[in-house]
Amino acid sequence: MKTLSALTLAGLMLATMNTGASAWYCRANGYGGSGWARSDSRERAIYLSLYQCSKRGSGCRINACMP
């Protein structure tokens, strides 16, 4: 009986948790190159998209960054 109660409680807790994934998608454009990245952290997505862009071009700037 205790096991059943524990499993029921665990199931209810999992059902009420917020399961929405929040990933950031950022895109950078520059002269001769572009880059994009996706990450849970906005700062990391910005950094990675700028890094990808700078490998191919110069003067890279963030074009869009959305969750």
Structure explained in plain terms:
It is a single chain. By secondary structure, the chain is of the alpha+beta class. The protein contains two helices and three strands, in the order αββαβ. It has a domain at 23-66. Helices cover 45% and strands 36% of the residues. The protein has a three-stranded antiparallel sheet with strand order 2-1-3, covered by helices on one side. The mean pLDDT is 82. Keywords: Signal. This is DUF4189 domain-containing protein. Residues 1-23 form the signal peptide. It comes from Methylobacterium nonmethylotrophicum.
Relevant terms:
3-stranded antiparallel sheet, 67 residues, rod-shaped, 36% strand, alpha+beta
Tell me the layout of helices and strands.
Blueprint: H1 2-16, E1 24-31, E2 33-39, H2 42-56, E3 58-66
Number of helices: 2
What is the molecular shape? rod-shaped
Residue-averaged pLDDT? 82
Percent of residues in helices: 40-55%
H-E string: HEEHE
Protein name: DUF4189 domain-containing protein
Signal peptide: 1-23
Keywords: Signal
